[in-house]
Amino acid sequence: MSGQWDIYATHLPVLAAVVDNSQGPVLEHGVGYYSTPLLHALCAGTERRIVSVNGDPLWFERFRNYARPWHEFRLAAMPEDAPDLLDVEWGAVLIDGACLERAPWLKALWAADRARFIVVHDTEIPTSYDYTPVLSKFSYRYDAKMRVPWTSVVSRHATVQWLERCL
Amino acid sequence: MDNGECDLWSTHLPVLAACVANTEGPVLELGCGHYSTRLLHALCGPGLRPARRLVTCDTDPSWLRKFAHLRTSWHEMVARADVEPYTHAAWALIFVDEAPAGHRIGVIRALRQCGRLWVINNTEPPVTDGRKAYRYDEILPDFPHRFDYKRYPSTWTSVLSDVPLPSWLEGLV
Q1: A98 in helix, strand or coil?
Q2: What are the CB-based long-range contacts (under 8 Å, 24+) for A63-70?
Q3: Minimum distance, in Å, between the CA of residue A18 and any CA atom of chain B
Q4: Chains A, B: CB pairs < 8 Å
């Protein structure tokens, strides 16, 4: 039994479903006490490649013990700090980093057109994080509204409505 | 309630998710919760693959009602203390996190031969005032293979099996 969902954890079922229903490497933008252990655990069994990106070195240090040959940590605030990451064919991406970093990463990933599914946290207020201009460009979008903050999943080429069946 | 990192009720999520994602077949959840029930539903649901059978059992009907909207053809929600009906199935994974605390070893005994992989919450050493009366020491040593997930010192989660556990579990932090 448990109490209530921590507002910082509302994206976990969506994130787990997307990662478990996708293949290929995983990009985590914004490390955190909920997402990083979960993604690490979901990828551990098959040593699926995961790259965790964050712009704050002090915050980053708290998660260094998760580093493995298959779990890489990259200090990069903006996409131009790690341009090679935009060339990777990501199976799943999480956007949940620092406020001012989110839209630039989302825009860069849309432009690169290499990510199959992108999980975006905190989408309940359209104007927050400057999400709206770029989210509206994606062909497919599913909003998980069971808990606030909301979590959205977007894709340029793959339908995401299947999420309704497991959330 | 948190430990400075995350809600203490959520500490089992990483190891539970990893075990579900790396197994196939039906899952039995003994004791529903805001974190585990929704996570298991997400991982067992028919996303881009066929659904896995998921049964959530709880001794408290009021708790189950919180998750009634998750009931589907592949996710059964059952209010009962007696697990005998589930002793006739072969479960790929059984998750134990129910109340009352003293009930747990009874259901583990009853289902002992039915689960291939067990994920059992709150396996940290008992506190001295006896509040955590799980009495796990009476049953868990029967399992030949055990991994303790101790990422959160106050609340351990253990993975147990009669068959050798995958080596990647040791890499979880």
Answers
A1: coil
A2: A63/A31, A63/A36, A65/B173, A66/A36, A66/A37, A66/A40, A66/B173, A68/A44, A68/B171, A70/A43
A3: 9
A4: 117
What confidence category does residue A2 fall into, taking pLDDT thresholds of 50, 70 and 90? very low
CA distance B119 to B106: 15
Contact A151, A115 (CB under 8 A): no
Whether the CB of B10 is below 8 Å from some CB of chain A: the reply is yes
Please give the Cα distance from A75 to B29 (Å, whole number): 39
ipTM over 0.90: yes
**DSSP letter assigned to residue A21:** T
Report chain B residues whose CB lies below 8 A from the CB of A167.
41-42, 45
- Rounded CA-CA distance A45/A109 in Å is 27
- pLDDT tens per residue, range A105-140: 999 999 999 999 999 999 998 888 999 999 999 999
Burial B35-54 (b: 16+ CB within 10 A, else e): bbbbbbbbbbbebbeeebbb
Contact A144, A123 (CB under 8 A): no
3-class state of residue B36 by DSSP: helix
pLDDT, one tens digit per residue, over B134-151 is 999 999 999 999 999 999
Are B21 and A66 a contacting pair at CB < 8 A?
A: no
